[in-house]
């Protein structure tokens, strides 16, 4: 059944189920520029309000997967990946891919750019001089085989329909759609030819799905659709009621990840999530019998330096500096204005409006308000205080990295407003909330 784009939009707007062949035709039109940006935005909004049934969700995912090349691999180990639904200070992908590779997995990680208030792995990697985030498929295959992992963006060949819809969702208020998130994530992962996938689904004030029940629904959707499409998948629900790392931005998060790999800094919450996701990947790929042994293997890959070596090989193979881990200060951009943000009064951090922290980074120029916007990779926040931390004259809420004093002042006001200070903090949530699948 072939429908004009406007007819398909009208059907979904009015709450009707869409035939699989109509979804296939619409996605083909999106890929071939026969569907306009306005029509794609209207479709996204209709889906946002009306939702998709499971068969529609599967049909959309498959259509987006088949909009380009679907990779196959011939490697001596399992092909694995992880994906996060996004948060603030969530730079887990950068150390996790080489950690799993150091344990015998192969990780062809196709990542995205920032969506809404969350940072994107590709925007972070774009702050590394020379690093090719969009290699051709031959180079992608070669680096994955030789280094064990390659963290890149969507090439023109892989799920091109998703790339176009992804940018439209970012600026049309439709990022949070469970159906569109499911299809977007899984179309890229299915196109990458994976043998196992672990999802990090965030819940909390800095997540797209703020309530745990919503996050659980997304996790179940992802696991159900992925397994139904033949991709073994598990999901962890993790806490995003505060930034995962103490850095939020692009270059500042790369620096944080490099410090983590090198052992210069390993904060407990970030470390716990990284190990938990990596352990699930190793078990899913048959590289460890259980998560206890898998966690020990990942710890050893870090402490021995093997994970850092894998990251260095990947970075150099994709055009980045060979000494990036040892000397990040030589290569990563640095903002001209760096100043502390002090709380209006001394006390303990009782809660954080984490989404507002991410929005503050966008306000500095570290994210987009339009698809064509350029990103300032140097700006961001470091030293972010966590829930329960004592703040005062000696311990600021954060450090702002800005392009100008005026932008720093605006970000400072936003951060002060995002933090609640009191005498006693509520009990901190566990960082790993649930396991699905």
Automatic annotation (TrEMBL):
EC nos: 2.4.2.4
Superkingdom, taxonomy of origin: Bacteria
Keywords recorded for this protein, A-Z: Glycosyltransferase, Transferase
Gene Ontology annotations for the cellular component aspect, listed alphabetically: cytosol
Listed InterPro entries: Glycosyl_Trfase_fam3 (IPR000312), Glycosyl_Trfase_fam3_N_dom (IPR017459), Glycosyl_Trfase_fam3_N_dom_sf (IPR036320), Nuc_phospho_transferase (IPR035902), PYNP-like_C_sf (IPR036566), PYNP_C (IPR013102), Pyrmidine_PPas_bac/euk (IPR018090), Pyrmidine_PPase_CS (IPR017872)
SMART domains reported in the protein's UniProt record: PYNP_C
Record-linked PROSITE patterns: THYMID_PHOSPHORYLASE
Start and end residues of each Pyrimidine nucleoside phosphorylase C-terminal domain: 348-422
Pathway the protein takes part in: Pyrimidine metabolism; dTMP biosynthesis via salvage pathway; dTMP from thymine: step 1/2
Reactions this protein catalyses: thymidine + phosphate = 2-deoxy-alpha-D-ribose 1-phosphate + thymine
An individual GO BP term: pyrimidine nucleobase metabolic process
A Gene Ontology molecular function term of the record: thymidine phosphorylase activity
Annotated PANTHER family: THYMIDINE PHOSPHORYLASE
UniProt family annotation: Belongs to the thymidine/pyrimidine-nucleoside phosphorylase family.
Subunit structure: Homodimer.
Function: The enzymes which catalyze the reversible phosphorolysis of pyrimidine nucleosides are involved in the degradation of these compounds and in their utilization as carbon and energy sources, or in the rescue of pyrimidine bases for nucleotide synthesis.
Protein name: Thymidine phosphorylase
Organism for this UniProt entry: Methylobacterium terricola
